[in-house]
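Objective 1.3, modelling of assemblies. Example input:
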Amino acid sequence: MAFIELNNVVKNYAKGSEVVHVLQDLNLSLEAGDFLALMGPSGSGKSTLLNLIGGIDQPTAGRVVVAGSELGSMSSSQLAKWRSESIGFVFQFYNLLPFLTAQRNVELPLLLTNLNGSQRKENAMTALRTVSLDDRAKHKPGELSGGQQQRVAIARAIVADPQILVCDEPTGDLDRQSAQEILALLEILNEQFKKTIIMVTHDPLAAEHAKNILHLDKGVLVESGQTEVAT
Amino acid sequence: MIKQIFKISLMNLRNLPSRFGISSVVVVGIGGVVGVLVAILAMASGFESALSSGASNDRVILLRDGSTDEMASSISQAEVALIETLPGVAALSPELYTVVDVPKMDTGTYANLIARGVGTGAFEVRPEVEIVAGRNFEPGRTEIIAGAKAATEFRGLDVGAEVPLRDSMWRVVGHFEAAGSAYESEIWLDFPAALNAFRRNSATSLRVRLDSPASFEELTQAIESDPRLQVQVISEPSFMERQSATLRQTIKSFGYAVAVIMAIGALFAALNTMYTAVSTRTIEIATLRAIGFSSVPIVVSVMIEAVILAILGGALGALFSYVIFNGFTVATLNPAAFSQVAFDFNVSTEIVYLGMTWAIVIGFFGGLLPAISAAYIPITTALRGE
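Predicted structure (tokens):
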């Protein structure tokens, strides 16, 4: 079985009396260490697919198996624990807690572990060094640029050493230079730290940083392929 | 789970200063409810205290059989002489209870003031009464002493002043205190002189100090077994309780009614504010849940925050009422005696506890629904800020 495997996945939403079919009979296999870009127009279902893999949403039908765990059979508290151990989230708008310093934000996932305060701080600083922001550890999000905030968010995503990073438009709110820095960082995490990365993006240039690209349209995978090495 | 609750709650509380505006709305709203509740209950407590303070188990009041208050009672001088000889009686004061019209200090309008003719044993029966200015009246003379609160609530009761009572002028020769009891809202005069002035020939009541509280039964049996005596014996605490019951209940009912209405308003205000406070953190809470925090710790942490804000509000309201009202003297009509009784607001520990309980209940229910809403909305919906 593949590292990430989706079999005959269907996802429907109720919108009033209407049923919206977001994903239709979707099958997908990903190996550990992959870096996948999910592309497609708005409403195509790419974020929904990302949420299913990240364990923050459940399919209407079908199986989602990630790192050996079938997510559909887990309770919400089991899923929460699984996410804390297996998944790192990177959001388009960073989702940092505004009243916490960068270091405290990065420490958040470690609050769910048995590490003591000094161990948490040490690990957070290591993660911040990885994203080259250890000199901004005491700054609050409001005191950082968009690119720096996203790097803090990536440090938060990797601090508990999850196997998988799910990134929802990680460069969607950034200028070109900051976006390039973030994408380069994701490549390092994939290649050197062996993280499996699934990234939703609208940006073809961003997608070129991934090893594989999948296109979704109206809930159906329409095309897939390997990318060229980004330039 | 406990660790998660502790960590999230600590984080929320640290964040309170950054939500000062919205948090202070909850604090002030709940503080207002508690402040009003405490003030009203302090009024009821002060009134009750004025009528019952100094009530002693070794004192009894004797009234005509069937009478419920001193005004409607009558005990002949022959009965007084008989009772004086009964077992258990340590001291006795025949008293004439009547009301006179005296202008109030603040408005100048006439109000009922209790004028009590007391026997020579009155001070022995009530050892807590002491002259604090001037001197006591002399038997047989048209002299009065005024209670300390009566002297401040009514005009013309300064020491040396003359007061018209019925057909003659009475000189105020002293002021007395009585441990804060309702006697301080009365004027006292010599019993025989009072009978003469008010053209009466019998007492309205008798105050008796017993040898000991145990003598109550002995005296009651002695009176009931003597067919010449048509009087009832009531312990002073029971009598005071009965006298204050009507107004105390009225004030309390009014107080609770006002407090309940305000509490409902505050509950909805707290709900609304907590919803707003939580809704501004929807994405923040969803992010925590995505990272792996469970729903229960999030519910509990929001509840803890709501209850802490409510406790702050309750403490603020209680403190405000204490500073403004505790010891504040007012006078009102005691419907049981058709006379003015002055009393101090009494913000007691029990009332503060009650106010704080109300605050916690409001905070708990005000925080419950927003907390549940925040913790159980689908993460994907919350992450979109919906």
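The interface with chain A takes residues 4, 7-8, 11, 14-15, 18, 283-284, 287-295, 378-380, 383 of chain B (CB under 8 Å).
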